[in-house]
Each structure stands twice: as structure tokens, then as C-alpha cells.
Recover the amino acids of this structure.
């Protein structure tokens, strides 16, 4: 029947034509399920429709007059025939919800089959009618869902499904519930806001809004956010949110989350250890620079004092003597201050204040030259005197410079060239360190900032230097990139955000 | 007998003031700015006492000390450093260098005299200041 015909039928005409064998024939032929009829005695096919031919991959000419043993593997044919017998002997419908079948062209398929006995006038089975629905696709989809749900349940990462329309949680996996300290299904219906804790600068609601706004506008969000457990305790999470649009349903957000507590703690431990070590080195270098001149001042003053008669009670000699004694006292005081700085250098100092990056660069250059001693080393500095002050912790940035420069210096045997430049971009103050060493192959660049990744194992590289550098720059809200220098080696580009009115004090 | 002091120090200021003070105390003093010339001067000057900066431009003070000790095992040895004494002592121990004094800059002149006494093996102060010899 075609579309136009269906619309014009009325009830009477339909009833009138139901006896028409052509109509029944047409229905049987065109129905999308396999329909077959077998004779009750020998179970040979007497009728099969087009859907049946397509499913089995055989024509009706192949099938009519044959039975299942002619087409199917023995075991399968035995199963079909035993079911057929059961139907015929019991004289009632048998529903087989799922049976596998081997087909010529489409491999193994799964059918939902109903087998019905057709009885003759005496009530004896004459034919067997079979109607089969191919449920392979549905079964595969169900299997897929089962598999995915198993993955969902067993993931180490937390996963939560959130309504993109109103921000309420629709479901969460056990890892997510565990990470946040909730009972199973307890989060369902809650707004994602309850998971945010915010930071010192940003309230929880504001933080939640930012994430939601980003997911809305970009369709995706990924980053570290401060999160809150049910008991109110806070922790860092890494989160990736993807918007999933669904035909006919509201869009959802799939959020994958992992608890960064352990990683943050490990990073912090590493950072502290390395910081203490390198502040010590820096302070020692600085102390040396100051102790030399102060030491000279002290000896000069004392020696000068030897020329002043000690019995002078007044006059120029007495005044000179008093002045020299002051110089001696003050020089000694300098010495004590430097020693106490050395001592306190081991304490933590992470305060930030507006400072001049160029000063750090020059300091690091001098230290590097001292460290490298007699090795041939050419250090070129291209300082932009106009760079604005930016807010950072000079000690930490010293550490960054030392680590990067040490890497550069150790990258190459002799005739080493290192270039340090400062400059600006519209939003940042930029520091570039380049060398003419062997550089870092492209496939390793992404990993050089990973903790414990080193290319200098034999030479005693801890693999921590650049990961600490990375941590420090990130903690300053900056960025660090590694690529190739025109000098031929590696180039590290560090950007620190300009203060420009943000937050102020 | 006038005791001889060799000073190896890259800071010019120290090379000026040390001889002024030490000659006023009756020592005979020579100075050099780097390690190699200290070693070669040591051969002709033959000092009783070497005062040497730990970190010279060309050599470590420890290298200079070891070279001169080889020629004269009785050489009195005083290191001066702008860094920490502990670090220096550790480095010296690594090189099996013993019997020395160490002065951390800044130090008073009195400390120099104490150090000289200490490394002179009980011979006391030399020269004009009522020396024991």
C-alpha cells in the first residue's frame, strides 16, 4: 500500500477488503519482521516473506521445500526444530525472547521469535507460523550501555552528570560520591553549587558561576577548581566538563573530576624542599657579595685606627677615632645581618610584592657565571629597561631563573651561549631564556615540566627542576613554554601577568 | 726572625689593607691576586704562613694550599671566605687538608692575629711585637 492510498481509506472499505488475499499477502510481504510458515509434519518451509529472505540471506526459491538442517549448523537447526516440535505438540504459542541465528550475509544475529501452531479443522497442527524480530542492534546497544555503566561505576575518576539547563546533578558514580563524601544517590537533585568552595578571592557561588558560564559559552571547561566535601572540608579538584547535546532532550554536562589533594601535597613538598635548597644557595651567593666589601671596610677602618693615637682626648684625632670606631661597629653589624639572613633564608618566604624582573635576571646571570667557573660560557642579556614592575616573589623567581639557567648550562659541553631577554606583551612581562645546546625534541617537550622527568639521569638530574619552575610560574598566574631558539637550542618563554590595576593591595 | 706571610686574595681592597696591618705587626708580607702566581711566588718567597681566599678567580684556595704545603709541610694555613666556614671545612676535608684556620668575612684584625698564633704551632707571634723567638 502506498502513502496516498492509506489516507483515503475509510473504515468500511478497509473491512470490505480484509478478506482480500492480495491485501494479506501484501502485509506479510512488506512487514519488517521475518514471517515464515513450515508444514507441521516435516517442518519444511512453505512460505517466507521478504524480510525473512533478507535476514537469512537466502531466496525463497532456496528455502521452500527445505528444512532447517539444510541451512543452519546442526546444533542450531536442532534447537529450532525442537522449539518447533514444542509448539506443535503443546498446540500453543511459544515466545523465544532471544535466540542466536547464523545468517549467510550478516553473520550472527539475535532474534526475538514467536512460534504459533496453525491447526486444521480437526484441531490438529497443520502448519507452524513463525514471526521473528531482529533484536541484534538493540542487544548491542544494551550491551554497550551495560559496559559503559560498568566503566562509569569503576572509574577512579569521579563522574557526575549535570543538567545543563538548571545545573542540578542527575547522577554520579561511586568515585565521585566518595571523593565528595556523599552517600549513594545523595547528590541527585542537588545543584552543583554545593560542590564549590571558592577561594580567598572568589566566593563559592561566584566560582560555580564562572565554571557554569564557561561550560555554557565554550561547551567545555577544564581546569583546577577548589571544591568542598559534604563535611565542609575543602580540596582541589581537576575537572573537565563537556556539554552533550541530545536530540529531543535537554543538554547535559558530563563532568569528570579527580581529587588533586595527594598531588598538590606532593608538589608542595617538592617545592618546599627545592626552595629551601635554592634560597640557601642564593643567600650564600648574596652573602659572599656583601661580605667581601664589608670585610674590607672593617679591616681598613681598624688599620686606620692603628694610626690614630689612642691617648688623644680631643681634637681631630679624637673625632677621627670616634668615626672609625663607628665604621667598625656598623661593618660588624652588617656582618651580623648577613649571617642572620643566611640563617633565615632557610625559612619559607612566599610573599609577593611589585618587583623588577630585570634585577633577578642580572642576579641570576652573575650567579651563573660564578657557578660555571672556568668553563667557557657566553651569557648575553637583552634587558628591556621599560618593563613595568610585576607582583612576584623575587626569591621564587630567582629559583626559576637558576633552574632554567642551570638546565641551559648543563645542556652543552663547551662554547655555550645563553641569552636572557626581558620584554613585554600586552598582558604580561616576558622573560626568554635561550641556549645553543641540543634543545628538546618535540615529542618530549610536553613532558619536561612533569615531576621526575629528566634527560640527565646519568649526570644527576633530579627531574624536579623544571616541574618546580612550572609550579612557581603557575602559582604566579603565569605561563611557561618550551620551543626552539634561533640560537639552535631550547627556548623557554615565561610570561608573568602584569598587575595593571588588578586587586591592588 | 721575621715571619713571612703570603696573601692570595682576588679582592684588591684586602691586598691593600692586609700588608698595612701585618707589616705594622712586624710581619714580612707579599700579596698576589690569583692562585697560580701565589704558587710560583711561594717557591721564591717561601712563606711561613699562607692567607688565602677560598675562591680565587683561577684556582680554589684549597688547590693553592695543597701545592704550597707540598713544598713546605710546616706551612701555617689560614683561609678567608665570604661564604660559610662549614662549607669550606667540608671541602677541605674532602681533599684531606688538615691544620688550618678559617676566617669568615667580615672579621676584626684581632682575629687575624689569633689565627696566625693558632697555625704557628705554639711559636707565637712573629717579628717586632715582642715575638717569642
Amino acid at each position: 500500500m502506498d502513502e496516498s492510498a492509506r489516507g483515503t481509506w475509510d473504515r468500511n472499505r478497509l473491512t470490505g477488503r480484509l478478506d482480500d488475499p492480495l491485501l494479506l499477502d501484501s502485509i506479510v510481504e512488506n512487514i519488517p519482521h521475518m514471517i515464515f510458515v513450515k508444514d507441521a509434519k516435516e517442518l519444511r518451509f512453505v512460505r517466507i516473506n521478504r524480510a525473512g529472505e533478507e535476514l537469512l540471506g537466502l531466496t525463497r526459491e532456496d528455502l521452500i521445500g527445505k528444512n532447517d538442517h539444510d541451512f543452519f549448523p546442526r546444533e542450531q537447526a536442532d534447537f529450532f526444530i525442537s522449539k518447533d516440535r514444542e509448539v506443535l505438540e503443546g498446540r500453543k504459542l511459544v515466545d523465544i525472547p532471544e535466540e542466536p541465528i547464523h545468517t549467510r550475509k550478516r553473520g550472527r544475529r539475535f532474534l526475538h521469535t514467536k512460534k504459533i501452531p496453525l491447526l486444521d479443522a480437526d484441531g490438529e497442527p497443520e502448519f507452524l507460523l513463525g514471526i521473528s524480530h531482529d533484536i541484534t542492534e538493540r542487544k548491542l546497544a544494551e550491551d554497550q550501555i551495560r559496559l559503559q555503566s560498568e566503566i562509569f561505576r569503576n572509574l577512579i575518576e569521579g563522574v557526575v552528570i549535570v543538567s545543563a539547563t538548571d545545573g542540578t546533578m542527575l547522577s554520579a558514580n561511586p568515585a565521585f560520591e566518595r571523593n565528595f563524601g556523599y552517600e549513594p544517590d545523595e547528590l541527585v537533585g542537588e545543584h552543583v553549587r554545593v560542590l564549590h568552595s571558592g577561594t580567598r578571592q572568589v566566593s563559592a557561588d561566584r566560582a560555580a558561576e564562572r565554571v557554569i558560564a564557561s561550560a555554557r559559552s565554550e561547551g567545555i571547561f577544564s581546569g583546577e577548581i577548589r571544591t568542598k566535601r559534604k563535611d565542609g572540608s575543602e580540596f582541589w579538584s581537576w575537572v573537565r566538563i563537556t556539554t552533550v547535546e541530545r536530540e529531543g532532550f535537554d543538554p547535559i554536562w558530563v563532568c569528570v573530576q579527580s581529587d588533586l589533594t595527594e598531588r598538590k601535597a606532593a608538589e608542595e613538598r617538592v617545592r618546599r624542599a627545592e626552595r629551601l635548597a635554592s634560597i640557601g644557595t642564593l643567600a650564600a651567593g648574596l652573602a659572599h657579595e656583601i661580605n667581601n666589601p664589608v670585610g674590607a671596610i672593617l679591616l681598613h677602618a681598624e688599620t686606620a685606627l692603628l694610626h690614630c693615637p689612642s691617648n688623644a682626648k680631643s681634637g681631630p684625632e679624637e673625632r677621627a677615632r670616634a668615626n672609625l670606631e663607628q665604621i667598625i661597629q656598623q661593618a660588624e653589624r652588617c656582618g651580623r645581618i648577613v649571617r642572620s639572613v643566611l640563617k633565615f633564608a632557610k625559612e619559607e618566604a612566599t610573599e609577593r610584592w611589585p618587583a623588577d624582573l630585570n634585577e633577578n635576571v642580572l642576579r641570576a646571570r652573575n650567579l651563573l657565571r660564578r657557578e660555571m667557573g672556568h668553563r667557557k660560557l657566553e651569557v648575553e642579556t637583552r634587558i628591556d629597561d621599560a618593563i613595568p614592575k610585576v607582583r612576584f616573589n623575587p626569591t621564587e623567581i630567582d629559583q626559576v631563573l637558576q633552574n632554567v639557567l642551570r638546565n641551559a648550562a648543563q645542556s652543552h659541553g663547551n662554547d655555550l651561549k645563553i641569552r636572557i631577554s626581558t620584554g613585554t606583551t600586552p598582558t604580561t612581562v616576558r622573560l626568554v631564556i635561550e641556549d645553543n645546546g641540543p634543545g628538546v625534541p618535540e615529542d618530549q617537550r610536553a613532558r619536561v615540566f612533569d615531576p621526575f622527568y629528566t634527560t640527565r639521569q646519568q649526570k644527576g638530574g633530579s627531574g624536579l627542576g623544571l616541574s618546580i619552575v612550572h609550579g612557581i610560574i603557575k602559582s604566579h598566574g603565569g605561563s611557561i613554554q618550551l620551543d626552539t631558539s634561533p640560537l639552535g637550542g631550547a627556548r623557554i618563554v615565561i610570561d608573568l601577568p602584569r598587575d595593571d590595576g588588578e586587586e591592588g593591595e | 726572625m721575621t715571619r713571612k706571610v703570603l696573601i692570595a686574595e682576588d679582592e684588591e681592597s684586602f691586598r691593600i689593607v692586609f700588608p698595612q696591618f701585618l707589616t705594622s705587626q712586624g710581619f714580612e708580607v707579599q700579596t698576589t691576586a690569583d692562585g697560580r702566581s701565589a704558587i710560583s711566588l711561594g717557591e721564591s718567597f717561601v712563606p711561613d704562613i699562607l692567607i688565602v681566599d677560598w675562591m680565587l678567580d683561577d684556582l680554589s684556595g684549597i688547590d693553592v694550599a695543597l701545592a704550597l704545603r707540598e713544598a713546605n709541610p710546616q706551612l701555617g694555613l689560614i683561609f678567608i671566605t665570604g661564604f660559610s666556614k662549614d662549607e669550606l671545612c667540608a671541602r677541605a676535608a674532602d681533599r684531606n687538608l688538615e691544620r688550618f684556620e678559617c676566617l669568615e668575612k667580615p672579621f676584626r684584625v684581632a682575629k687575624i692575629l689569633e689565627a696566625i698564633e693558632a697555625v704557628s704551632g705554639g711559636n707565637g707571634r712573629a717579628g717586632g711585637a715582642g715575638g717569642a723567638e
User: Anything to note?
Assistant: Confidence is low (pLDDT under 50) at residues 1-12, 457-463 of chain A. The interface with chain B takes residues 284, 287-300, 302-303, 306, 328, 331-332, 334-335, 342, 374 of chain A (CB under 8 Å). The CA atoms of residues 29 and 49 of chain A lie 5 Å apart.
